[in-house]
Amino acid sequence: MNELEQEYTAGFTTKVESELTGKGLNETTVRLISAKNNEPEWLLEFRLDALNKLSSMTEPDWAELKYTRPDYDNIYYHSRPKKQFNSIDEVPQEILDDFEKLGIPLHERAKLAGVAVDAVFDSVSIGTTYKDKLAEEGIIFCSFNEAVQHHPDLVKQYVGSVVPKGDNWFACINSAVFSDGSFVYIPEGKRCPLELSTYFRINSAGSGQFERTLIIADKDSYVSYLEGCTAPQRDENQLHAAVVELVALDRAEIKYSTVQNWYPGNEHGVGGVYNFVTKRAQCRGVKSRVSWTQVETGSAITWKYPSCVLQGEGSTGEFYSVAVTKGHQQADTGTKMIHIGANTRSKIISKGISIGKSTMTYRGLVRVAPTAKNSRNYTQCDSLMIGNDSTSNTVPYTECRNDSSQIEHEATTGRVSEEELYYLATRGLDAEQAASTIVNGFCRSVLNTLPLEFAAEANKLLSVTMEGSIG
Amino acid sequence: MRKVYLDAESVDFMIVPTQDLEFVFIQTEGKCTANIKVKPVADSKFKVKIYIYAEGTSEVDCVCTLDIPKEVSGVETDIQIRSWPFDRSKIKARPEMFIKNSNIIATHGNALGTLKSEDKYYLASRGVSDYKELIKQSLLNA
Amino acid sequence: MLKITNLSASIGNKEILKNVNIELEAGNCLLVTGQNGAGKSTLLHAIMGRPDINITGEISLAANKLHSMECHERARAGVFLAHQAPPTIDGVNTMTLLNEINKVHDMPYTRSELIAEASEKFLNMQLPNDWKKRAFNSGASGGERKKNELVQSQLFKKKTKLLLLDEPDSGLEQSSRQKIIELIEETCIAGGSVLLVTHDKELQAKYSNNKLDLSNA
After folding, report:
1. Which one-letter DSSP state was computed for residue A425?
2. How far is A395 from chain B (nearest CA, A)?
3. Does A392 reach chain B within 8 Å, measured CB to CB?
4. Distance CA A282, CA A338 (A)
5. How do beta strands A273-283 and A301-304 pair?
6. Domains in chain C: how many in total?
7. Residue C25, domain extent
8. Contact C56, C6 (CB under 8 A)
9. What is the phi/psi pair of residue A104, to 5°?
10. What is the pLDDT of residue A14?
11. Interface of chain C against chain B, CB under 8 Å?
12. Tell me: the pLDDT tens digits for C32-56?
């Protein structure tokens, strides 16, 4: 008992008329979406091919998740505010206020903070600030749809090359009906001077969000990208099946950070977002590097495994994660590090906290191919169980086919120790403060890897999430 | 308790541990699939060590599952898997934990790798060039 | 007799030793000195045959042309290196390793003799009771690792023609210094040679009459 749902602060709805189109997962819907986005033929073909592949696939059921299958035919696959916007100045104040409530710096403040923000409001990117400034450097940061119009060759070259259409059920759906997302291209030798940020929001009832993000870092470049998400309270579950593809060429580095706070459902486990995401990075270049950092506290169901395919010799993949589940949330999450090139390195630090009746599962894969000579992996995977009703699962797969590599994995599962709580009590902390102190310490090594802009938000989110959990 | 499996094909083991356990798999050829299920009772304290050695083109696929249901409280356990994939062999190791009771301390470790170059140099400086034999003998004799 | 002619050694692109020449008669100890980075350890490892060290020049030990032999062959020819930082090798049992070394040297001990000798020496060095059963250097402190090296040196001294001591005393107490001196004496008396790298003032003073200073390279 006594496991209160902290009132979900982002649970408000904006009364903006949205146009809902494309009901049902079928060819009509796909053609509709493609036409509305004014897409070239090759992209329509891409979508139709995915739809075709979908018919021979089945939804996975191997995760430790129990949920009602979404009714794919009753979802509207496209939603956008009825008016079209050419620039940020045209966006209705209501929508901009919305983002302000969520603390997204879309205006001048953003400039001071050095953040260029691309906000996606139910499938359509609402203006992209500072893209002109970035354009001076040759850096492209725009919505996916814009990229299709203005940089089709780049998109065509890379889309679907990291996450093939038929990779998995949810990626396949995404490949057929993806709406919009972000596109980033950093040219050779450039270090992106701003943290690039995108804020997602799912608003309309019955709509899923299928954004598609593609980030390409050319040789010797660097970019740090922040993704934050939130969604209003709804009774029916909302589907979020995104695909994020990252490509890092020689000596390039991509840092991708996520703070996710989708609506988790109410205290009876009703409503909430289903978050089924495929995120994958290809470290194609020699000495390339990708790091995924995430703080996940929301969603009713989470299914995501940000991964790195380490192809380039000497490339590095990193994964840092703090995930919290409470109430009736369920998460099956982790990472995959696939070592193909020689001298590749990967590091995984995963911290999971399960509260209430929730289920937290860490599922990781480290695979070392015969060609990955002298590769190394280090994994640390810790779980903290609070209360006595939660479930904590750890499922680490390791596969080694090379005799000169080293894989090391350590994991602990336990609960907040009585001794620690007692000690802190003798120093004047009440049960909640003590638990909060301990939880922060538990997550410290991951939180330290977040970019500053996110660190503050993540810390706040964590303490808000933890409030009322100790009882 | 210690069990050694030489070129086994399939091993299925379910145990309610009352003492520390040690499993050794030595595979010189063929494929071995091992499933070890550990179902502890309340307040039990034990360690499980699994050693896997594979050479040539052999394969070992080992899953060790720790199952702690809601009613089982007070368990303290450590599970360690250490694997040596020599030559062109393939080792899959999966130490899993499914835990529904929070009054536990459960740790596990999983390490795969043959010898680091400094280890090989050390052994060579002692005149030893057959590392595989050395590790095999060590695992058999301990 | 150890004869080293125009030995140059590099690791990667970095040249560490240049044109080192040594002639050491059997039964003698050579003290190798030089400041940090001068290449003292590298010299010992180059003689031992560490794979990442590239050399030009010649190294001969009696009739053996070491420079064209592999590392483990050099060990079998009687070169013994007491490592400065011995590693932990999990999966390799301490006693099993001693058995293997015994085998490559054509069994100077029977199995039971070896166990008895090893146990006595481990006890003598005050190493933990279960030392023999442990994986090699598992859970060992720096000092314990050095003691482990010393025990091996003592066990196989009869097969040692060239004893390479890389800071054998560091991390050890005073009593070990005496053991090191005994080891050097016994090796020399039996006709072997010794190269000694040490920062210990007393050991330096004792063996300073035959010295090679690498600083002037």
Report:
1. H
2. 5
3. yes
4. 10
5. parallel
6. 1
7. 2-213
8. yes
9. -95, 125
10. 56
11. 48-52, 70-72, 75-76, 79, 81, 83, 86-87, 89-93, 96-97, 99-101, 104-105, 133, 135, 152
12. 999 888 899 999 999 999 988 999 9
Number of domains present in the structure of chain B: 1
In the structure, do chain C and chain A come into contact, i.e. share 3 or more CB pairs under 8 Å?
Answer: no
Partner chains of C (3+ C-beta pairs under 8 Å): B
Beta carbons of A252 and A288 less than 8 angstroms apart: yes
- pTM of the shown model: 0.81
Write down the domain spans for chain A: 18-415
Residue B73 lies in a domain: yes
Q: Tens digits of per-residue pLDDT, C98-132?
A: 998 999 899 999 999 999 999 999 999 999 989 99
Beta partners for residue C60, in sequence order: C3, C65
Pairwise CB contact (< 8 Å): C100 & B137: yes
Give every CB contact of residue B40 below 8 A, 6+ residues apart in sequence: B16, B17, B46, B66, B68, B72, B75, B77
Under a CB-based contact definition with an 8 Å cutoff, are residues A33 and A302 in contact? no
Residue A1 CB-density burial (10 A; 0-12 exposed, 13-18 middle, 19+ buried): exposed
Q: Do residue A414 and residue B97 have CB atoms under 8 angstroms apart?
A: no
CA–centroid distance for A122 within its chain? 16
Which stretches in chain C have pLDDT values below 50?
none
Q: 3-state DSSP call for residue C74?
A: helix
The boundaries of the domain holding residue B34 are 2-113
Asked whether residue B16 is assigned to any structural domain, the reply reads yes
How far is it, in rounded angstroms, from Cα A180 to Cα B117?
A: 49
Asked whether the beta carbons of residue B126 and residue C49 sit closer than 8 angstroms, the reply is: no
Task: Flag if B138 and C51 touch (Cβ within 8 Å).
Answer: no
Q: What secondary structure, in 3-state letters, does B48-95 show?
A: EEEEEEECCCCEEEEEEEEEECCCCCCEEEEEEEEEEECCCCEEEEEE
pLDDT at position A198 = 72
CB contact (8 A) between residue B123 and residue C97: yes
Count of all residues that appear for chain A in the document: 471
User: Residue C1: what pLDDT?
Assistant: 87
Residue type for A292, please?
W
Nearest CA in chain B to C81: B125
Closest chain C CA to residue B115: C89
Q: What is the average per-residue pLDDT within B92-101? A: 94
SS3 annotation, A147-209: HHHHCHHHHHHHCCCCCCCCCCHHHHHHHHHCCCCEEEEECCCCECCCEEEEEEECCCCCECE
Contact B112 A396 (CB under 8 A): no
Token look-up 């060095």 returns C125
The rounded distance, in Å, linking the Cα atoms of A313 and A287 is 6
Could you tell me which residues of chain B have a Cβ less than 8 Å from any Cβ in chain C?
Answer: 51, 53, 82, 84, 111, 115-119, 121-129, 133-135, 137-139, 141-142
User: Does B115 sit within 8 Å of C96, measured CB to CB?
Assistant: no
Cross-chain Cβ contact B102/A403 below 8 Å: no
Q: Are B41 and B72 in contact (CB under 8 A)?
A: yes
Strand partners, A279: A244
DSSP for A286-341?
Answer: TT-EEEEEEEE---SEEEE--EEEE-STT-EEEEEEEEEE-TT-EEEE--EEEE-S
For A54, the token pair is 């979908």
Token output for C78? 């009687």
pLDDT along chain A (471 residues), means of 10: 40 58 81 90 94 87 66 67 55 61 50 49 54 81 89 95 92 90 93 78 56 94 84 60 95 92 68 84 97 87 92 96 89 94 96 91 94 95 89 93 92 84 79 79 86 75 70 47
